Amino acid sequence: MLKRRLEFCFLYMMLIGAYVIWFFPVSRLEFYGGVLCYASIILFSIYSLILENRTSQHTLLWIHILVFFPIAGYLFYLFSGQLYEKGKLFRSKRTYNREKLRTIFDMEQTPDLTGLKGNQKRFFQYSIKASHMNINTKSRLKVLKNGDETFPELFEALREAASFIHIEYYMFKSDMLGHKMMDIMMEKARQGVEVRFLFDAAGSLKLAGKDIKKLKRAGVNIVPFLPLKYGFFNQKFNFRNHRKIVIVDGKVGFVGGLNVGKEYIGKDQDVGFWRDTHMKVEGEIVQTLHSIFMLDWEYVSDEVLIDRKAYTRPVAAESGGVYQVVPTGPDMKERMSDLYYAMIAAAESSVWIATPYFVPNEPIRTALKEAAARGVRVRVMVPETNDGFLTQYATRSYFPELLREGIEVYSYQKGFMHQKVLITDGNLASVGTANMDMRSFQLNFEVNVFFTDQEAIKDLEAHYLEDMKESEKISPVRFYKRTLWERTKESFARLFSGVL
Asked: Which locations, inside or outside the cell, does it occupy (predicted)?
């Protein structure tokens, strides 16, 4: 904390110095003194950075940002570059999570992997050991395409709640869709149903304060995840809860890519059509998903739910396959990139990826190229237009590397594609909240479901093939002929890929 406050003191010195030099007459001696002070601060930051023993590429990236982007680069470094703090900030939560989840898993039967196919067995053997998350078999799930299918199912389940409703979202807006969901929450709270609502403080900036007060008056227990004002001087400002979880009575759960806002049902004219994938889950899998919510809730509210039997009773369902819920983030040991890597490395015939942000780390890129070299058919689908300059052009900067290996790249044209889907060999899939970028891999609290449910996977494959019809397949010849200006934008954006 002392080092963190010192760094912010440096920032204030920079800003004040720049203001004085720019707006007031100063002597040459004062000017050179300011330059020397600035250089000393940057050298101190670079020395601290080197002592962290990061990868050479990551270290050089931040050195370049600090040197070539005065003040703005230092500010960016303070809020996006100091990932080393996360081990300290969330160490106690990580240990506590593991102990509580182990207690939950002890209530369930020992997982049986004997009936799995080769790629499935290799993946789950790794994921169980690496993530310390159990697998479930007495479960089922339903794939929900876009907001048109998701929100009617979700609202129906909420209206049928008899005991409790637990909701966790990264982005929740006070618009027509958000108000409709809030009305249901308040109605159920007045009926005596326990309603708990956890929202990310940064992602839900458009959740109005008056609506929060209205929810509280109606009896909804609502808390923010890591309020910004409390995290200004530490890395908690930078770690966001990107999970989307809804649990109803411990029997039904919802998880996937959809937040709550009118753009998610295609009603935002500035955004247009929104392509996404969500899931409705039932059975033992709900208990694992619910445990993640309860641990997050306890972290920010100090209310312990996970020790209450009313919230930890598994409700079995007719099995459709093998399922594993895996949360990742600074409070968990494993990274989602490692699980994606394991899926791709275990693939024998096909890898299909759909992601809005494709800024993969080196292991993911290596896994994709090795899969293609083995004869695995690899497809990557991304939106044609993204919601940010850096993410859009950083994504495109990886196309030449993929195309050279014979990997098929598709650019989704119909609208903005926000789904996070990975399918391998037509028998193993992942759907959840994690993008293929460094923020999801390093900073965000995420949750994905890995499963072998053949009916659900067939739906995902059918949707993927439909999306391909709305996409343009990138031609290597045409792409290599793009203008120098396009290549310049890609190369510039790629400089920031380590922090996107």
From this structure: Cell membrane
